[in-house]
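I had to read the description of the data format several times before I understood it. The format is easy to grasp once an entry is in front of the reader. For illustration, here is how one protein appears when written out as sequence plus structure tokens:
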Amino acid sequence: MESYPLKGILPPNIVIGSGEYAAPEQLAKKKVVPQTDIYSVGVLLYKMLTGRFPRQGGKISSLNPGCDQNWDRFLEKALAPDLAKRFASAQEMEESLAELIS
């Protein structure tokens, strides 16, 4: 079974999904890894808490009075352009989020 079921069906220049949620490595057409999805979840959380996309700029603590600098650090890690600085797994991200909201 192929890891990419649409390979060969769509032209190679077609991107599926919203660019706002795509990780830098995905936009650069590099290898997609588990941390790629973590980036997208980070974008979703940022958007839910601020009503805007991270690309528009601004620390979450300055955009949402209910969020402190711990949220800034959490989302900076989730949205790190460098894969090595992003959460290594969904479990690590979940554990960090649980600590944040407890």
